[in-house]
Each structure stands twice: as structure tokens, then as C-alpha cells.
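<instruction>
Derive C-alpha cells from the sequence

<record> Sequence and C-alpha cells follow
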Amino acid sequence: MTDSRTVAAVVLAAGEGKRMRSALPKVLHPVGGRPMVLRVLDSLRPLVGGPLVVVVGRGGERVEAVLPEGVCVAWQPFPRGTGDAVRCALPHLEGHRGPVVVAYGDTPLVQEATFRQLVAAHLQGGYAATLVSAVVEAPAGLGRVVRGPDGSFQQVVEEADCTPEQRAIREVNTGLCCFEVEDLREALTQLVPQNAQGEYYLTDTFGWLRARGRRVGVVQVREVRQVMGVNSRKELAQAEETLRRRTLEALMESGVTVVDPDATYVAPDVRVGPDTVLLPFTVLEEGTVVGSGCQLGPGAHVRASRIGDRVRVLWSVVEESEVAEDCRIGPYAHLRPGTRLAARVVVGNFAEIKNSTVGEGTKVQHVSYLGDATVGRQVNIGAGTITCNFKYGVPGKHPTVIEDGAFIGSDTLLNAPVRVGAGAVTGAGAVVTKDVPPGMVAVGVPARVVRRARPQDER
């Protein structure tokens, strides 16, 4: 940019979204796991130093509830068009003297670079207003950009008001634009609803400014999909697909192998280290960080978790957990929130772990449940082991502690709160209701300590 003046922005988010056929306000429908309006704000905020205003209408309380701190909210009581919506935001722009970007809350694919391109062109051209246009194959439903014989901008005509000749124009208004704030204020006072919809069109301000000798610029973007709004479930799916493809391409360029992009879903904020392989049907949700040299999938579903280097996850779910390097998870395992695995842990078939810490080299391989447990290093958790962390009539969850080198026999029930000491052994089918001292063997129902453990007890 050649001008250092502060930029403000107005995001229009008051549309009813009737074609979505949803009780949820349109701009709150997620794309890439994040509400559309927040994706727009994510792209805008790095270049906005002045007021950032979101205009809401019906259902606005729900929109306001998700907005980040520092964002102003303006209310449009009645849906009277985009010009009226921007007019509702003007009180929040009092004292602002720089350019104002106008964007839409249902355009989740717009990138920061596009907003910067718009503002740079506006400032460099010395325009009163600058709009973003795109050339599309099927312009139906979109306002046409009408140019003069010399190619200069003349006006934007909404489709309902187009002549047959204007309908044939393929250059359309995307809705994104930038104004000098005083020109915007003046033009908005002159709007009249003389159109087929009976609304106040923001696009009418361009023609009004030009007719009074003010300069209006046009920035034409090549990637049409990023600037088009989402107005239906079909378009929501198209936006999701575009964002997913953009995310996967960036990962592949950084050294990640994506075996089948059409069957792999990665949220835009996910970080994945080089030489990791993502196999089909893998889903990596927001807040996930994956290390280098991992193999995730087929069927890995990871949410808000940290995965270390060289980890293998196969047909399993990992939620809000921490997994250190060289672990193996699955198939059909479930790490629930609060799980922390140290290095080289194995979690196998149909094992479930919740709010537990598992020490280095421990194996939890078959059909077992660890809840609210602390498990030490080099522990064997036998098939069918269950930590009974909840008692009828007793509030809260109760902890189980299994110390280093213990061997938990198949079908052991650990009736928490209970501790199994270092090197201790439980027999198959034991129901442990009392602490097992270090190095001792406990068997039976209820389990009782019978002798000191021998090496063969651990095989």
C-alpha cells in the first residue's frame, strides 16, 4: 500500500438466508469447522486498524455471541437491503477518516491477500470507491458490472433490473468493495429504493459517485470461487470442498503425503509435519498438531490433539489428547479428552482411555478401559481390564494408579480408588478392591495377595 491511513471494515451478516432452510443464521454455518463469518473476520483483521463492524439482523444475538472481542455490532432491524445495512454501521465509524472495506459474512473463502489487493488498488488509484469483480460462466442472480466503450466503470445493475443486453454481461459484482468514508456517508444519504426489490442497494452508490465526477475503480479477481457468497446448502458444500482442497494442497507443498485428497478432511488451522502420510478417510479437526513421519489412517479421526513424531493411528479416534513419539494406536481405539500417552505406548483393538496418563513403553492392547488412571512405565494391561472409576451412589470419579512394571492380568477389574504397586501382578479375572503392594501377586474375587511375583508371572 502507498497510503498509511487506517483501514476500517464493515461485514454484512444480517441476511436471513432463506435458501439455507435452517434455524441457524446463515453466517454461522461452518466451513472447515468454523462459522463462515469468523473466517471472513480472520482474513480481515490483519489489515484493519480502525473499527471492525458486523451488521446483524434476525438471529443476531446468536451471531453476536460468537464474535471475538473488539468487534462492534450494528443492528439492522428490518431487511431493507445492503445500502441500509451499511448505513446502520455508520455510527460505529464516527471519527474514522481512512478507507472502509465492505465485506459479506457469507464469503468464507476470501483470503487476506484479496482484501489487501482491494485496499492497495483503492489507495493507489485515489478512488472514492473500488469494487471487486469477477468474470463467471453463469452470472444468473448476480449484479452485472457495466462498462463504457473505453472499458471504464459505469455502474452495477442488479439482475432483476437488467436489460436483455446487460443480462448477457459475464462480469459480475462480488459485493466486496472499499470506500473513502466521507464519500460513503454522502452516497448512502442519496439512496432510494427505486428497483424491483424495493431495497436500498449499496451498489447504487458506485453509479451515484461516478455521476458526480468521483473516480470508481474495479479490481478483477481470477479465483472466482473465493469471492462468491454461500446462499444454499449446495453452495455450502462447494465452499467446504474448495477450502479443503486449498488446505490439502498447502500441506502437500510442505512435504505431507495425501494419498487420496478426495477422501481426506483437514481443518485449515491443522499443522502437519513433513513426511507424514495421510491415508483415506482421515479427518483432522481444528486445534490438531501432527509431527513428522507419522502415518494417520485409514480412518484416523483426530480432534484438538497433539501427535508426536512417527506415530501410527489406524481406524481410531483421538480427542483432546497428547500422544508422544513412536506410539501405535488402533485399530478401533478411542482416546477421549485428557488422555496423555508417553513415548512408545501401544493402544490396540477396542481399547478406550479417558483422562489418564500412560507411561513410556506401556501396552494397552486389547478390549480394555482406563479412566481417570495414572499408569507407569513398561506396564502390561491385559485384555478386558477395566478401571471401575464410578461407584453407585458415590459422587465423582475415582482414580486408579498402576506403578512401573506392573502386570495386569486379563479381565482384571480395578475398583477405584486403588493402587497397584511397582512390579505387582494381578491374576486373570481378579477384582481388585484394595491396594496391591509392590512386587506382590493378587488373585481372586475379591483379589487377595498370595505371594511375591516371580518372572514367569509376567508372561
